[in-house]
Structures are given as C-alpha cells and as structure tokens.
Amino acid sequence: xTRQPFAILALIPFxxxxxDSPDQLPRRPTIRDSAGVRIVENxxxxxxxxxxxxxxxxxxxxxxxxxxxxxxxxVTGALRLANERIVVANAGTLELLFYDRLGDxxxxxxxxxxxxxxxxxxxxxxxxxxDSIVALDVLTHRVSYFDxxxxxxxxxxxxxxxxxxxxxAAGFFADGSFLATQGT
Length: 184
What we know:
Order of helices and strands: HEEEEEEEEEEEE
Structural class: mainly beta
Number of strands: 12
Largest sheet: 4 strands, antiparallel
Radius of gyration: 25 Å
Strand content: 35-45%
C-alpha cells in the first residue's frame, strides 16, 4: 500500500525531465474577452518538423530579361485557385494574369478603363468561394467578381460616406458583405 504513492511521486520527476523545464509544460489555448470580442491565443507548436522555404523555386512566373511581354510590374496580389491555376494582379497593366500550374500564361483580363471588368487602379485581389476572384479598384470604389477562367461576372460599388470617404475592401464574409477600411 505504501508503494503506490511512492510510485506516483517517482513519476513526477520523470515527467518533468521530458521537457526542457517545468515552465515548458504543454499549455492549452487561452480564451479571453476584450470589449465583447472573443480572443483565443494558442502559442503551442503543433508541428513536429518546422516548415522552411525551399532552396529552389517550384514555379517561376514572369518573363526573363529578353521577354518583355511576360514581365510583371506592380504586382498587388497572387492566388492559387482550386483548378490549380494561378492569378496575378498586375497593377502596372491593370490586368489579372492567369497562369497554369507550370507557370505558363494562359489568359489575361481587365485592362485600363471604366467598363465592366476594367480597372482604373488594381489594389487588391482575394478568393471568393472556391472558384471566384474579387478585385478592388480603389479609384472607382468598385469590387469586381471574376470566375476561375477570368470571365467577368459583376461588380459592386463600395459607397463612400462621411465616415469612410475612401473605402477599401479588407475582406468579406460568407454572406458576401464586405469589411471595409478607411484608405487614403
């Protein structure tokens, strides 16, 4: 009977010896409230091997010095789509450039203008659902929707107000509404 408590006490130092220090025992996420906003903090590492950037690029997009037609200028975003295509927002030409999974350009859409699917500025792109793209034109206060092949779908105007005279989309919610921030 007296050996059982001793065995349990003997396991405690052994368990502590498995960590670098007693302060590094696994911690659970902490949950707190800040002005009605739930904040969850989790600083526990969950992977066994840390990730690292490869020494060699797995894909190269954009032209070499001799291929000016493929150059990128003022890239404001890039996305990998569900169909494995890559779309790049090239603000220098005001175009969305579509590449296959090997990095070969397959199409380009947009361009300078104020018509459907055109831009006066191209500041931001994001994925919308699994197969759509949204692009922000800050000069026209317009968000345009494109499918995964670059076909223009529709646009929505972000209406300026006295509180937010230069709205910029920062993200969107599942119902399609936007989170807008004040731009300059």
